[in-house]
Amino acid sequence: MPGSETAVGLRGLRKEFGPVTAVDGIDLEVRDGEFFAMLGPSGSGKTTVLRMIAGFEPPTAGTIELGGADVTRLAPFERDVNTVFQDYALFPHMNVLANVEYGLRVKKVPKAERRERALAALRSVRLAGFESRRPAQLSGGQRQRVALARTLVNRPRVLLLDEPLGALDLKLREEMQVELKELQRAVGITFLFVTHDQEEALTMSDRVAVFDRGRIEQVGTPAEVYERPATAFVAGFVGTSNLIAGAAAEKLLGRSGTYSVRPEKLRVVPGADALAGPDERSAAGTVAEVVYAGPATRFVVDLDAGGRLIALQQNLQVSSMEVLGLRGARVRLVWQRRHEFAIT
Amino acid sequence: MSRAGAFLHRRAGVRLALLLSAPLAWLGLAYLGALAALLVTAFHSVDTFTGTLNRTFTWANFLDLATGEVYRTIVLRSVGVALAVTAIDLVVAFPMAFAMAKLAGPRTRRWLVIAVLTPLWASYLVKAYAWRVMLSSGGLLGWGFGLTATVLTLAYLWLPYMILPIYAGLERLPGSLLEAAGDLGARSWQVFRTVVWPLTFPAVIAGSIFTFSLSLGDYIAVKIVGGRSQLIGNVVYDNIGAAGDLPFAAAVATVPVVVMLGYLAAVRRTGALESL
């Protein structure tokens, strides 16, 4: 369980590459034992932040603290963090065991102890028996687990993961999400991982920081970030944005400003004149597009009041034939008032 | 035309044969043919009085070569020079190649590559004489001539042939491997010893084959800056020119070939040739 002590503290962190500002003044606290995600589109600065924490890039300004100690000027080998690289960066000329032992070997840990710890690390990622394989003889998922074992064997204070599942196919990625989460609980090490995949960030992490253009837009639990996005960017990047703005907001909600409702919170009712309950709100519109996706269907609805909303409906009873027939139909979207939120 | 194109598209084998026929013919005739002729000539002899070629088979040239004290000295000296040149080039080339491949930005890298290549565009003789001027008693260095001067000159001449393969090898080495090693606690020299060196060793071998074989066959640099010392190449040259003993020259010329074959066989056991 996440403790109250700070594992990683970033203060006023900046990084400029020539004229480009990659990281534009970031303050962040990651607590001990937390599974923390840095989420954002490519070029948002999240990987640069990770590389600065690892010590691969010196910051232009600001400080980095690990467990309360300032490590801003320390070399990578002097920092109590380890990194799982996006391409895994396994040493191709060493077998699995030598890869996992590497960190202990360069730190002159006695042979018997490092063998024992490496074998334990390999067992923890379910790779016992693979010791003498070369990285080239492993599948993507197995390489990923060797990379994990190679870092965990050093028992770092913080484990940094750079798009750890990016190179895996969908099925394996979903399995590894669960496995990573279990592993993190078992070892109790702070995991700080970078991803552009909002679903990955939401399913795995205790807290998420959403990055955009070198800044942090919002920090919160997955539920906070998803249900109560602080900015339009967060609303759009984490989930589908579904904005009600301008004239449509005045007409439907009786207020000016920009509001958002998540697609799964919208109910699609056939016929334009269905009635809404007391705590509900509704909007009439025309179905512009129907996207059948197996377990659910996505309706794109053009509102009479202006704008367009996307509604996600579970296919509890209907079949693809029935929902596809709704294209062009008049419908009413109904949602509970508590599910609409203002966006700044 | 388009029909021929379609035909070639379907027949990958024909395409390959068309592309390779000219270069393979060149290699077969000019290169292997010349080597075979060399080997055959080495077993002939020359009549000492009339100077005419006698084409009957004889081991005499190789026996002379094996028993002559002076030849053994020259062969050992030549191998020593080639090894020294290779060692110097390796020590100079590795940091240079590393800076080019891993530290320099794209612009600097381009300039460094050009800087390494430019000497190759200048004539060999010009460069050798430039070293003669530098090394002569009134020159910039003024160290005089001899074996050391020969080694220095050859190391300079063949340096690009060592830098370029190592540079290519280091470029293929993912930067994340170096970062991973540092991240896992390795200091710079440990990163070099455990990751960089083993993974670029094949490239080093490739470079050393160039510097070693080029040094072993050279006879011009040693003539220009070598003072009175002689290498295998000089013996070959003198037997062709002054002595007119072509068969003996051929026999001497097989020595570098045999040494190189031995070197390649040794290298092959390290597995370095597989990644060429």
TrEMBL record, chain A:
ABC transporter domain segment(s): 8-238
Pfam families in UniProt: ABC_tran (PF00005), TOBE_2 (PF08402)
SMART domains (alphabetical): AAA (SM00382)
PROSITE patterns noted in UniProt: ABC_TRANSPORTER_1 (PS00211), ABC_TRANSPORTER_2 (PS50893)
GO terms of molecular function: ATP binding; ATP hydrolysis activity; transmembrane transporter activity
One GO location term (cellular component): ATP-binding cassette (ABC) transporter complex
Keywords, alphabetical: ATP-binding, Nucleotide-binding, Transport
Family annotation (PANTHER family): SPERMIDINE/PUTRESCINE IMPORT ATP-BINDING PROTEIN POTA, SPERMIDINE_PUTRESCINE IMPORT ATP-BINDING PROTEIN POTA
Protein name: Spermidine/putrescine ABC transporter ATP-binding protein
Organism: [Actinomadura] parvosata subsp. kistnae
Automatic annotation (TrEMBL), chain B:
Cellular compartments annotated: Cell membrane
Stored InterPro entries: MetI-like, MetI-like_sf
Membrane-spanning segments: 12-40, 74-99, 111-131, 143-170, 191-212, 246-266
GO cellular component: plasma membrane
Keywords: Cell membrane, Membrane, Transmembrane, Transmembrane helix, Transport
Any one GO biological process: transmembrane transport
Membrane topology: Multi-pass membrane protein
Pfam families: BPD_transp_1
Domain spans labelled ABC transmembrane type-1: 75-265
Family membership noted in the UniProt record: Belongs to the binding-protein-dependent transport system permease family. CysTW subfamily.
Entries under PANTHER family matching the protein: INNER MEMBRANE ABC TRANSPORTER PERMEASE PROTEIN YDCU-RELATED (PTHR42929:SF1), INNER MEMBRANE ABC TRANSPORTER PERMEASE PROTEIN YDCU-RELATED-RELATED (PTHR42929)
Protein's UniProt name: Spermidine/putrescine ABC transporter permease
Naturally occurring in which organism (per UniProt): [Actinomadura] parvosata subsp. kistnae
